[in-house]
């Protein structure tokens, strides 16, 4: 028994050491190389889950605050087979400062979120669950989640009794107009962790890429639970 316990302790210790060795050298920011490597992995994982099919979705991470620089996916790429060389770096007016390609039309929304809540990373998915729920709950202006243990995966949430409001915004192809509505939503509800675009998808964010990825996983989980709960009730 002692032997087993010692091995477990060693494994835990080794994992901690590995995590420390892989930590970014600059804790205040993510380098372009680190961001694009992580976003590439995120794309593969989300594609497998069916959250970014058919070149949908887009991802970004802040690489510099002053001046503002954001690593972001180029438009029209399969998120399941991204490579770090396919990312762009843009400034606060979506001018390309690094890389070849065209930024997503939704880059303006990413920048509105980065400015609005000081996010370090913004992730956008097009799942079946978000498409279904953002249509069925649009007339209510959003979806409330309450009572779920998984809510504790959202930053700052400590109890399943927390009530999380996920606003639903009308979809639009006018990104200037839509980014203005996103900014106003964030001003009105600064404690939200994400929002839905009607019959389009989810936007969520985090102080870091790790946190933003966790928020996608939590919110996608909760939306899937809500849809499947309806199916379970009618069974
Ligand atoms: Zn989209």
Radius of gyration: 19 Å
Structural class: alpha+beta
**Counting H and I runs of at least 4 residues, what is the number of helices?**
6
Percentage of helical residues?
Answer: 40-55%
Give the strand content: 15-25%
Which whole number gives the mean pLDDT? 88
Unique ligands: zinc ion
Strand order of the largest sheet: 4-3-2-1-5-9-8-7-6
| Order of helix and strand elements from N to C terminus | HHEEEEHEHEEHEEH
Number of strands: 9
End-to-end Cα distance, whole Å, is: 48 Å
Q: Tell me, what's the shape?
A: globular
Report the major sheet.
9 strands, mixed
Low-confidence stretches are 1-27
Task: Tell me what the structure shows.
This protein is an alpha+beta fold and 235 residues long. The chain is 42% helix and 20% strand. The chain contains six helices and nine strands. It has a nine-stranded mixed beta sheet, sandwiched between helices. Strand 8 and strand 9 form a beta hairpin. The longest helix is centred in the C-terminal third of the chain and has 26 residues. The chain is globular, with a radius of gyration of 19 Å. The site of zinc ion (ZN) has 6 residues, from loops. Zinc ion binds next to loops.
Topology of helices and strands:
Layout (H helix, E strand, L loop, with lengths): L1 H21 L9 H17 L9 E7 L4 E5 L13 E4 L5 E3 L8 H11 L3 E5 L2 H9 L5 E5 L16 E7 L5 H14 L5 E4 L3 E6 L2 H26 L1
Parallel strand pairs: 7-8
Antiparallel strand pairs: 1-2, 1-5, 2-3, 3-4, 5-9, 6-7, 8-9
Helix pairs in contact: 3-5, 4-6
The structure holds zinc ion.
């Amino acid at each position: 028994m002692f032997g087993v316990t010692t091995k477990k302790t060693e494994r835990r210790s080794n994992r901690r050491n590995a995590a420390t060795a892989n930590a970014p050298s600059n804790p205040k920011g993510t380098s372009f190389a680190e961001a694009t490597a992580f976003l590439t992995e995120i794309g593969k994982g989300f594609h497998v889950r069916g959250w970014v099919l058919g070149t949908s979705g887009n991802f970004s991470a802040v690489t510099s605050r002053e001046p503002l620089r954001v690593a972001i996916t180029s438009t029209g790429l399969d998120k399941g087979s991204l490579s770090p060389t396919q990312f762009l770096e843009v400034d606060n007016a979506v001018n390309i400062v690094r890389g070849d390609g065209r930024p997503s039309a939704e880059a303006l929304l990413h920048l509105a979120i980065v400015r609005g809540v000081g996010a370090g990373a913004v992730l956008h998915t097009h799942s079946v669950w978000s498409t279904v729920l953002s249509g069925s709950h649009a007339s209510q202006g959003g979806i409330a989640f309450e009572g779920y243990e998984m809510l504790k995966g959202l930053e700052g949430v400590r109890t399943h009794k927390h009530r999380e409001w996920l606003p639903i915004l009308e979809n639009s192809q006018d990104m200037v107009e839509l980014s203005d509505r996103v900014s106003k939503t964030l001003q009105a509800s600064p404690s939200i962790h994400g929002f839905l675009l009607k019959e389009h998808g989810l936007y969520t964010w985090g102080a870091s890429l790790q946190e933003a990825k966790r928020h996608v996983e939590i919110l996608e989980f909760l939306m899937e639970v809500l849809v499947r709960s309806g199916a379970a009730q009618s069974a």
